[in-house]
């Protein structure tokens, strides 16, 4: 499908994309670049990529497709660093988990004849780095692509076919729609869990037995509060407005629930919990 | 250890207690009573209990120990219904998940020579009824007993030995301490999850794609929002003040987090998420 793929950021996502496309025979040669030279060397040694580059210029100058999988806060700068060296016809796509701000910043950076396509593979593990990558990470998982009115149709189709070759089901969505959806189903639950761990810890200051009993249900519920802090800082900063909208909605729901606990309104509470159960069972 | 055990409420908890003690050879004969006669018949057919009683009086009148495992809202009334028929020396204990209000109500109901010991086995499954019970439910799980200044020491020791025979690790705690601990580590997470499901559902009214993407992380996080609504109504009503204290603490944490998202304070957010991760990893 393509001759040369450049992967910028050869971590779990970038490395797995490379492995998946190599395994599918969808690419002839993969060049990797990573600011972490130790990780990059490991990527080469493990065969995650075929070659490694010393800088952005040599990484992308012969690429048909550039896949950027660096932290979201670094994405625009990485695209800007690649842009001057992109060969004509090159397609650039990313794996960032926030899209509106990023797509708006990256599209105008493309030189004439090069095309940007925003993307977000819905996949991951608790591990990171090239050594954590594996060819089947995207198998059966969704990948959201976020074309805009400026997106080149052939570039979009190429990126879609590559994600499909990696095993993903591709869906297209406007960048802002993507951000609103993930604010609700992913970013909000993370914020809720982060606040919960803090609230339980503050309670533990008043009652020493609390920590000893915090295992069990609390364990599963707060797993997401162990997610990478700098990644979630970036998501909170870059998806600020959609996130604020759902934080606000959550605050209203919580305040209403607390008020009904305060007045002891059993009928309301049972109805609220019944609806929660029905909604949750419908969603899953 | 005892000759006759009466189990009032032969569901998952009551039935499993009976099975566990029979399996351990800690009881000679178990009499069951349940307001749900279909469930009670099934308990007999499945051998969960040895005999079934037609009313509270015949269930408890020959019992050395009475174990009540009815919904918490019905517990005090069930203890009151048994009290006139308790033989001298009988020990009464319960499995209710809220303790302060219940222990305070049940202790004075005991006739002369009979003793109440509050308890809360930390075990359960998503299923209910006698057919869901099994002998190893309490194996390796904690059981909290909540003695007070009025508790008879021999009665406490008997109840402790029985739970140990059922495979549990027994810990004693004041009733109010119990309620504060579980408000923080169990009741608060449930309220947080119930509100989350509602907030996501409200978001879905504005953005149709949301429900389609609600699986994955959201699934684990909201499992507890599928818990039995009437049980959680009762817990919210009966543990009102300790629950309000932690709901309040949570509301403060969430408001602080939202404010920092609103102003885009990346350093604060990263620090908050880092602390969450550390606290959570310490707790688990």
Automatic annotation (TrEMBL), chains A, B:
Keywords: Amino-acid biosynthesis, Aromatic amino acid biosynthesis, NAD, Oxidoreductase, Tyrosine biosynthesis
Pathway note: Amino-acid biosynthesis; L-tyrosine biosynthesis; (4-hydroxyphenyl)pyruvate from prephenate (NAD(+) route): step 1/1
PROSITE patterns hit by this protein: PDH_ADH (PS51176)
Alphabetized Pfam families for the sequence: PDH_C, PDH_N
Protein name: prephenate dehydrogenase
Organism of origin: Trichlorobacter thiogenes
MF-aspect GO terms: NAD+ binding; prephenate dehydrogenase (NAD+) activity; prephenate dehydrogenase (NADP+) activity
Gene Ontology BP annotations: tyrosine biosynthetic process
Domain Prephenate/arogenate dehydrogenase: 3-284
Record keyword Ribosomal protein present: no
Record-linked InterPro entries: 6-PGluconate_DH-like_C_sf, NAD(P)-bd_dom_sf, PDH_C, PDH_N, Preph/Arog_dehydrog, Prephen_DH
The family this protein is said to belong to: Belongs to the prephenate/arogenate dehydrogenase family.
Reaction equation(s) it catalyzes: prephenate + NAD(+) = 3-(4-hydroxyphenyl)pyruvate + CO2 + NADH
E.C. number(s) listed in UniProt: 1.3.1.12
């Amino acid at each position: 499908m393509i001759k040369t793929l450049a992967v910028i950021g050869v971590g779990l996502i970038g490395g797995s994309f490379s492995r998946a496309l190599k395994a599918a025979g969808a690419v002839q040669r993969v060049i990797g670049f990573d600011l972490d030279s130790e990780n990059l060397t490991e990527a080469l040694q493990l065969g995650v990529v075929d070659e490694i580059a010393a800088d952005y210029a040599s990484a992308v100058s012969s690429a048909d497709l550039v896949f950027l999988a660096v932290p979201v806060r670094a994405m625009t700068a990485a695209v800007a660093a690649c842009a001057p060296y992109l060969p004509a016809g090159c397609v650039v796509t990313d794996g960032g988990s926030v899209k509106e701000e990023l797509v708006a910043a990256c599209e105008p950076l493309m030189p004439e004849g090069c095309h940007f396509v925003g993307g977000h593979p819905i996949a991951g593990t608790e591990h990171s780095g090239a050594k954590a990558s594996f060819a089947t990470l995207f198998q059966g998982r969704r990948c959201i692509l976020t074309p805009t009115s400026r997106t080149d149709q052939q570039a979009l189709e190429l990126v879609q076919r590559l994600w499909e070759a990696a095993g993903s089901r591709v869906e297209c969505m406007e960048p802002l729609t993507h951000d609103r959806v993930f604010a609700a189903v992913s970013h909000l639950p993370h914020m809720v869990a982060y606040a919960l761990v803090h609230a339980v810890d503050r309670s533990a200051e008043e009652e020493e037995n609390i920590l000893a009993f915090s295992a069990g249900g609390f364990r599963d519920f707060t797993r997401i509060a162990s997610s990478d802090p700098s990644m979630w800082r970036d998501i909170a900063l870059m998806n600020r407005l959609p996130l604020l909208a759902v934080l606000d909605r959550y605050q209203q729901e919580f305040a209403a629930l607390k008020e009904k606990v305060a007045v002891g309104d059993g009928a309301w509470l049972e109805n609220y919990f019944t609806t929660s159960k029905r909604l949750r069972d419908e969603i899953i």
